[in-house]
Design a protein that fits this description.
The complex is a heterodimer of chains A (230) and B (316). With 230 residues, chain A is mainly α. Chain A contains twelve helices and no strands. The longest helix of chain A is centred in the C-terminal third of the chain and has 33 residues, at 197-229. The termini of chain A are far apart. With 316 residues, chain B is mainly α. Chain B is built from 15 helices and no strands. The relative contact order of chain B is 0.08. Classes of the chains: A mainly alpha (230), B mainly alpha (316). The interface between A and B is large, with 115 and 144 residues.
């Protein structure tokens, strides 16, 4: 067997690790992989062009940006913060755990398009989480602030990934069904989707624990600083 | 029938406007980059594969030489935003909610009522098309309500787009890389290697290799969909189901979820991991992945246990 095409994977890993421009890394890896598999350069460029073109729908979603930008111009992020500041007892931990649960349940009901990074995390969830963290721990150091924002995005991902497969009419369930059927194992989508439930429950508890431990850690940093100041 | 072509016309127009505004702002690299995307989205269907490939290489060249810059279109200050937020109140959330509500309720209405029989939308394309409809409605509603300057929606969109920069097309580029990998037979090679790495006779270790293969191959490809058919064909079906008599539903469903743990750990899953770091303007490109590591690893262990218990101990 010709193992040379795997060099493309090594290129991707090395390129990302060395922090070259990811677009450059990806296209170099594609060209190298194609050439090492014995295709000629024009055929590889054609394959790349065709696949890029077939996947244009992925980039179409950026048309949301003017709506979000316009609302941010009129104070959407500030509004999101104000709502959290007005809720008594709101903490970053509680907020993100509730968002995790909300995202898992709505995704499990097939509503995976509620939420998402440009629509929900940047304008709403991240500013709310930051405001809640500041409310309980005071102004955040830059590194801690980044952790809170990144945790907001991570929570959206975990909620989506480990909720969506409970909904039976989703692409990944249909893919599993298709693969098993082609090997002679007819399964119903429902048989598959019930088996997403145990993992969804584990994901909720593990990630909730991660969220609350970040919140606690921010509190300890704050206490340590307070101790020094007094 | 409304197809993706309608959506491409809309999105192409958006990118064309962003390109023109970049010229006005003397950001020629940005203008060229967004302009090429506009051409790709508008005309991609009618161009040859080679022409599309050359478009891709040109975009990458611009990004590779650092041709994309952040922009700073005129906008409101933080203190203005504070007072605007007071003025408009919680109604500011309404236009933001129009988009997901249109997409979700529209899809449900369309699929579970007689509307589906009208064939209004191209089959299985309705959600993204309805997302586009929602964007148009939300934009019109926001403009009518807030009465911003004429160019403000486009300029605010450009501010966000330029802060995302090249990462905006990384997900699409990675999907294209996946197609080239498939063409070069990378899946078969990995599947073969994983299949031969299995110790004879141990159900548990076979489950571990299967789940590990799903996670690692997902990390390489950036999504579990590419990994699943390969790992199912190499290990899942011949060894776990046929060899050891495991429950196919558990092996399929939870195997896929073991792959999703890999998605949390890789920059190749750009739209989940890299794009949000750009959107949130984080300094560390991998900040989101860092927050996911200690969720993904324990969860992967849970998946191994669930497969072992659910597909073998409870099943036999």
């Amino acid at each position: 067997m010709n193992y040379w095409p795997l060099l493309g994977i090594a290129l991707v890993v090395a390129g990302f690790a060395l922090r070259f421009n990811p677009l450059l890394v990806v296209v170099s890896a594609a060209l190298a992989t194609g050439l090492l598999a014995g295709l000629d350069l024009v055929a590889v460029i054609e394959a790349l062009g065709k696949a890029f073109n077939d996947n244009r729908y992925i980039s179409v979603t950026w048309i949301i940006l003017p709506v979000i930008g316009l609302l941010e111009r009129h104070g959407l992020q500030q509004r999101a913060r104000a709502v959290i500041e007005s809720v008594r007892g709101a903490t970053m931990g509680k907020l993100l755990v509730i968002y995790l649960l909300f995202r898992q349940i709505t995704a499990a009901l097939g509503m995976k398009d509620i939420g998402g990074h440009p629509q929900a995390v940047r304008p709403l969830v991240a500013p709310m989480a930051e405001a809640a963290a500041e409310k309980s721990h005071g102004a955040l150091a830059e590194g801690d602030r980044e952790k809170v924002l990144a945790m907001s995005a991570a929570t959206d991902n975990v909620g989506l990934f480990f909720g969506e497969d409970i909904f039976f009419a989703i692409a990944s369930i249909l893919l599993i069904q298709g693969v098993f059927e082609s090997y002679g194992y007819p399964l119903t989508p429902l048989e598959l989707s019930v088996w997403a439930i145990p993992t969804a429950i584990c994901a909720f508890f593990i990630h909730s624990w991660r969220i609350t431990s970040l919140d606690r850690r921010l509190g300890r940093v704050r206490q340590a600083e307070g101790g020094r100041a007094s | 029938m409304i197809t993706y072509e309608w959506l491409y016309f809309l999105a192409g127009a958006f990118f064309a406007v962003w390109s023109l505004l970049s010229i006005r702002n003397r950001l020629y690299g940005n203008a060229a980059f967004w302009g090429l995307i506009a051409i790709s989205i508008f005309l991609g269907t009618h161009l040859s594969d080679l022409a599309n490939g050359i478009l891709v290489l040109s975009m990458v060249a611009i990004a590779g030489v650092g041709g994309l810059k952040r922009s700073d279109p005129e906008t409101t200050s933080v203190s203005q935003r504070e007072s605007l937020s007071e003025k408009y109140g919680n109604q500011l959330f309404v236009p933001a909610l129009i988009v997901p509500i249109t997409a979700v309720l529209g899809t449900l209405l369309y699929n579970y009522t007689a509307l589906a029989e009208t064939g209004l939308f191209e089959a299985r394309r309705e959600t993204l098309i309805l997302f586009g409809v929602g964007v148009v409605i939300a934009l019109i509603a926001a403009v009518v309500w807030l009465k911003p300057p004429l160019l403000a929606p486009a300029e605010e969109g450009r501010r966000l787009l330029d802060s995302i920069g090249w990462a905006a097309i990384l997900p699409q580029m990675l999907a294209a890389l996946g197609a080239v990998f498939a063409l070069a037979g990378v899946g078969e090679i990995i599947g073969g290697a994983a299949g031969s790495a299995i110790p004879e006779g141990s159900v548990f270790l076979t489950v571990v290799v299967f789940a590990l293969g799903m996670a690692l191959f997902t990390m390489i490809m950036g999504n579990a969909f590419a990994a699943f058919p390969v790992m199912a064909a190499a290990i899942g079906i011949p060894l776990l189901v046929e060899g050891y008599g495991g429950n196919p539903a558990v092996i399929g469903a939870v195997g896929m979820l073991a792959g999703f743990c890999g998605t949390l750990l890789t920059p190749m899953a750009a739209n989940f991991n890299i794009v949000p770091a750009a959107l949130l303007e984080l300094k560390d490109q991998n900040a989101v992945i860092r927050q996911q590591v200690w969720t993904a690893i324990p969860l992967w262990v849970c998946n191994v246990v669930i497969i072992y218990v659910g597909a073998f101990l409870l099943w036999n």
